[in-house]
Structures are given as C-alpha cells and as structure tokens.
Amino acid sequence: MKLLFDGIDEPGLNTLPVYERRGGYQALRKALTMTPEEVLSDITESSLRGRGGAGFRMGQKASFLPHGDMEKYLVCNADESEPGTFKDRELMQKSPHMLIEGIAIASYAAEINRAFIYIRGEYSHQADILEAAIAEAEQAGYLGQGILGSAHDLNLVLHRGAGAYICGEETGLLDSLEGKRGNPRLKPPFPAIEGLYHGPTLINNVETLATVPTIIRLGGAEYAKIGTETSTGTKVVSVSGDVQRPGNYEIELGIPSRVLIYDLAGGPPEGREVKFWFPGGSSAPVLTKDDLDLPYDFDSMAKAGSMLGSGAIIVVDDSHTVLEVALKLAKFYAHESCGKCVPCREGTNWTVKMLRRIQSGEATPMDLDLMASVQTQIIGNCLCVLGDAMAMPIGSMIEKFRDELEAEIEAARERAATGELEDVIALGVADEHAGPLPVH
Ligand SMILES: Cc1cc2nc3c(=O)[nH]c(=O)nc-3n(C[C@H](O)[C@H](O)[C@H](O)COP(=O)(O)O)c2cc1C
Questions:
Q1: Which of 128, 249, 328, 395 keeps 20 to 30 A from 199, CA to CA?
Q2: Does the domain spanning 322-429 belong to CATH 1.10.10.10?
Q3: Is 279's C-beta closer than 6 angstroms to any atom of ligand 1?
Q4: CA torsion, points 190, 193, 196, 199, in degrees to nearest 10?
Q5: Averaged pLDDT for residues 188-214
Q6: How far is the CA of 364 from the centre of ligand 1 (A)?
C-alpha cells in the first residue's frame, strides 16, 4: 500500500505544478474549512504514532500545547541522524510539498504561526529543494499571511544544522536552533510546554508531518483502519546492511518482518543468512533470525524486547562477528555523545575500551559481565537517551551472543599469546575515531 510513496518517482513532483496536479494542497484546503479542533481531532483519531523514534501519538502530543494568545512554534525534525535511516531524505527530495502541506495543516490544528524545518547539514541538496518549494508555496498563498484567504498565517523557515547526532534529539535540536551548542535539556518541562525560545513547541519528524495531508484527505477514522489497531497506517522503512536490494519501502504496519527483509529487500547475499538485525535503527536492541516472522509494528517489536524506532532495518549476515558490529556501534555513540552527562560520556567511552580489550586479547569472560553492567548503569540515567541508544543494542548483543563473544575472547587471547596481537594493535591504532588502545 502506497500513501506517502504514491507517485513518488514522478518526474517534477518536487515542483508545485506537478504536486498540485496530483491533488496536492487539497488537504490543506479541506482543513481550512474545518475548525482547528476538528483537524486536531482527525489527527488524534488516526492514532498516528511519531515516525522519528519514540512512537508517541502525534494527536496527543499536539493536545498538550496550551491554548491562548502566545507565541507557539512547530519544529519539523529533519535531522535524520539515526544510523540506517534515510527515509526522510527521499521524502524531502522527491515530495517536499507534501511535508510543507503537512506542516501547514498541523500548524493550523495547533494554532501555530511560526514553523521551522531543522535539516541536517549533510542534506544540502534536499535543503535546496525544500527552499525552492517553500518559495513556491509562499508565492501560491499556501504559506505566509492569510493562507488561501483564511485568517491563518504561517511563517516557515528552513534551518540547516551542522551535522551532529545529538541535534536530532529534540531538545538538543532546539538549543541548536536557538544558536547555542546542541546539548539536550533536562526534561520536564517537555517542549510542548516550554520549547523553542521558552514557547510551547510541537516537534515532529518529517515522515510524521508528511502523513498529515493523507489523514485529512481520508479522515482520521479511515486512516486508523490501515495497519494494526495500535500501529496504524503505513511506514516508510529504510532497509540496509546485508541485503541484496537496500532501499526505502513503504509498507502497511503489521506485515511480517520476513516479507520486508527477504521479499522486498532481497535478503542477504547468496549463501549467507541473517545473523541478527536492528529493527529500528542502530539504537534498537538486536533481534535474531528467530524473530523474522514477527509482525513489523510498534507493539510486536516492543514485545520482542526491541523497538520500531525510526523504522530502519539494518541486517547483519553471518559473515560478520558480533564484536566487529558492537565496536563500530560503540565508537559511533562515543564520538557523538555530547559529553554533558557522566553516564553517557564515560559509559560510551568505556564500552569502546572494553570491546578493544576483547579485540586485543586482554579480556576475560568476566569483562562481559562488567560490560553488561556498564550498559545497565547507563540505561535510564542519562539526560537524554543517546547513552541508552548505545547501551540497549550492546546489552542485547552480550545477552544474545554471549557464547560467540566468549569464544572471541579466548581466540584473541590465543592470538595475543602467539604474537599475532601486533597486527591487531596496528589495526586498532589506525582507527582515527577510536584513539589509541587503552594502556593496561
Ligand atoms: C540521540 C537522539 C537522536 C535523535 N535523532 C532524531 C532524528 O534524527 N530525527 C527524528 O525525527 N527524531 C530523532 N530523535 C527523536 C526526537 O527526540 C523526537 O522524539 C522526535 O523528533 C519526535 O518526533 P515524532 O514524534 O514525530 O517521532 C532522536 C532522539 C535521540 C535521543
């Protein structure tokens, strides 16, 4: 079923005439004939869950914003920094007006007159496309003063980030948007109460907002019939890693994960099999080949001990070791930790050091317990969930692949004893992000 990706490859869809010819901005026209409360109630009835990571219901979040005469903001999170996730890029590049229309409708529903799109610095091509689309929409009266002759105004500004994972975290993003270093804020207060410039702020992901025109077009109740009862609608899933046809696939939530990984993405290369997979970006605890028949939806992933997250599946086949993947992952989070809180700053770095200890033949199986306990101490104890985003998958790898890691420890110890360690150390030092091996 294609809703967001319907006609996505039509040439020129990024321009206003083609988007309008395909029915674009009709949902905004319809919304403006309704009251903001009616529009919000459609969004609420759709049960749309956020597509950026946490899966929080959009209608509920929007309802937290206070009413009344005050400066409120809508911020579209286009940072798309979660490893494995590249769906927002395709949506913005090919159908920027769908996002702009969604922002215009959501702003109307929440009585907001100022909106921002915060886009990651690396997406300069997509930012140029969005800027051109915003100018077209302003010109046509879909943005600006008195939208389509109504009393609703909306000023939409595109802001380019500088490329930091933490600026995808909503409060880090807000600080960055205010011109400060992108550090997460202590919550509460949540952005819906006190966000950008201390004003109530609705923050949603690109895909979440791009879905809003479809909800208004179909009606919230009709939209809610798609997918499962608690994971309504369709989802664009980025599938990458060891698959033959990596890419973005729009699916109805609740289809078997195997269909996504094998039928759509082609499964691992010939002769290889799925060893484990991240169902929701690199922050999600890993699942194994035994979980391939689980329905791909928010609740089934949570019940299996993981999460749907940003909807990015990373497949790892049996040509890779768990240690290799864990080290790559831990190095990413250690590099991206903003350093503001201790459990994340120290925990991510110590995890890298412990994994390197295994690699260099200096670890014992007891180090696995130590590493698992470091992960437990990170989870729930950080200012934001960046630390948890490393601790959850690493913890799951230790739990599910302990035997392999123990064997790896033994093998590395033997290599060290026979002098092969020199090669391993040389490899480690060559890695610019990890820094030198720890001295023991
Ligand atoms: C470290 C970190 C990075 C994140 N990166 C992104 C991101 O790149 N894009 C995104 O939409 N949400 C990201 N999130 C989630 C946001 O904080 C927030 O939950 C989301 O923008 C809300 O939108 P939604 O309700 O539409 O999903 C990140 C969260 C964390 C903790």
A1: 128
A2: no
A3: no
A4: -170
A5: 98
A6: 37
Dist. CA 202–CA 115, nearest whole Å:
9
- Given the CA of residue 208, which atom of ligand 1 is nearest to it? 26
Q: From the CA of 170, how far away is ligand 1's center (Å)?
A: 6
Q: What is the pLDDT of residues 79-110, one digit of tens each?
A: 999 999 999 999 999 999 999 999 999 999 99
Alpha helices in 284-400 (DSSP H): 298-303, 322-336, 342-359, 365-378, 386-400
* Residue ID of nearest Cα to ligand 1 atom 6: 168
Options 2.30.30.100, 3.30.470.20, 2.40.50.140, 3.40.50.11540; CATH for 16-223 is 3.40.50.11540
Q: CA dihedral defined by 422, 424, 426, 428, rounded to 10 degrees? A: -150
**Segments making up each domain of the chain, as ranges:** 16-223, 234-317, 322-429
Query: Burial level of 275, CB count in 10 A (0-12/13-18/19+)?
Result: buried
58 Cα nearest atom in ligand 1: 25
Task: Name the CA dihedral angle for 87, 90, 96, 100, rounded to a multiple of 10 degrees.
Answer: 0
Q: What is the pLDDT of residue 424?
A: 54
228 lines ligand 1 (CB under 6 A): no
pLDDT of residue 430 exceeding 70, the answer is: no
Residue nearest to atom 14 of ligand 1 (CA): 169
* pLDDT, position 437: 40
pLDDT score recorded for residue 418: 87
Token digits for 73? 């903001």
Instruction: Provide the 3-class DSSP secondary structure of residue 380.
Output: coil
* pLDDT higher than threshold 90 for residue 438: no
Task: Please state the pTM of the whole predicted model.
Answer: 0.95
The per-residue pLDDT for 419 is: 76
Radius of gyration of the chain (CA): 23
CB 214 less than 6 A from any atom of ligand 1? no
CATH class (in words) of the domain with range 234-317? alpha beta
pLDDT at 247: 98
Q: Is 302 within 8 Å of 311 (Cβ atoms)?
A: no
Residues in the chain: 440
283 lines ligand 1 (CB under 6 A): no
Distance 51 CA to ligand 1 centre (A): 8
| pLDDT value of position 48 | 98
Which protein residue has the closest C-alpha to ligand 1 atom 10? Answer: 52
Q: Ligand 1 in contact with 165 (CB < 6 A)?
A: yes
